[in-house]
Amino acid sequence: MYVKPKHIVEALRAALRPRVAGMHSEEVFKAILTHERAVAERNTHYITVLAFYATENRIAADTAQILGRIFADRLRATDVAGWLDSRMIGVILPNTRVKDATVVAEQITHRMSAFGVRLPYKFYLYPHDECGKSGGQLELPLPQTFDSKVRGSELSCVGTNEPESAGDPQKVVQGKGGMYPFADICVPPHPAWKRAFDIVLCLFGLVVFAPLMLLIAIGIKIIAPGPVLFRQERIGFGGKPFVLFKFRSMKLNADTRVHKEHLAHLMRSNTSMTKLDKADARLIPFGKIFRASGLDELPQLFNILWGDMSFIGPRPCVPYEYEQFSPWHKRRCDTYPGLTGLWQVSGKNKTTFTEMMRLDIAYGRRQTLIEDLRILLQTIPAVVGQIRETSMEKR
After folding, report:
1. What is the pTM of this model?
2. Can you give the residue ranges of every domain in the chain?
3. Most Cβ neighbours (<10 Å): which of 44, 250, 316, 363?
């Protein structure tokens, strides 16, 4: 039987990790995290993960044993402790807000100080609406159990892990809006094979399409004076924002309220995901066919090369769309956004908003090289079909 190299590495790391009674291995703990996340989505509950971590090297065996004994005395039967990696031990606190988790953290750090152990901690909240949303500002007391070397416990909400935020509880609580709190501890990293696949395809695409991209840029400049490229903030992997590039297909200063209202209607009514292109006065000449053919998306090859996107994945949404997502919708950000994806080759504008979400999430769960190649090949007839539909509408 063939054993993958990554499995060997994981086994070696697990073997080096101290075994502590009542503390799960990294593999088991992250599986429990995934399950608790699904339960929180289903029952509209929230969970907080309290993570103690070593600032250098790994958590020592004797420190882990002390933490294990403290956890056994302090945690509830529903709380779960385990390794997040060699430098971090996490505690899942179901149905617990950050404000209450702070009390738990301070009690544990106070107990640790009796043994001469000092570990900073951070929080990861799911769903993250408590962090930075209107009405969700929390008043967190600054921990007093650490000296100036530790600089207080480094609270972390919604992925804001920078130590500089430790001294500002308001900044820590608000974090960066739209970021997944579990992105760093629950969502698997971008597969190495997928990144290599993206770079190879991207370099090939830039060489092949460079003359066409130059002609398009010249054409836009002639028919619609103004910037050639359209830059827009989109939401990417883990809910983190990035700047997406497109060839401009709309007039300057186009009103975005039309798109917001149309999108809100699609989300509420759950009707087919039709675009506004059919009678959109904001489009420049040839803009409709330009968008239907996907030629306006070619500059996103640079987004892929820089690592903001992948060739295959969900289309990146805009911030105001992301803000309307339910917690389970945000699972589509568990994978990098793509130039094309499963939704695009599975009906696209004929599907509903919910169907689009399910397709995007399903792709994230089963990313394989074979699946990516299949979607890539099916993209060609899908684009041809869109162009055909657009030309028939003109008639």
Report:
1. 0.73
2. 5-174, 192-394
3. 316
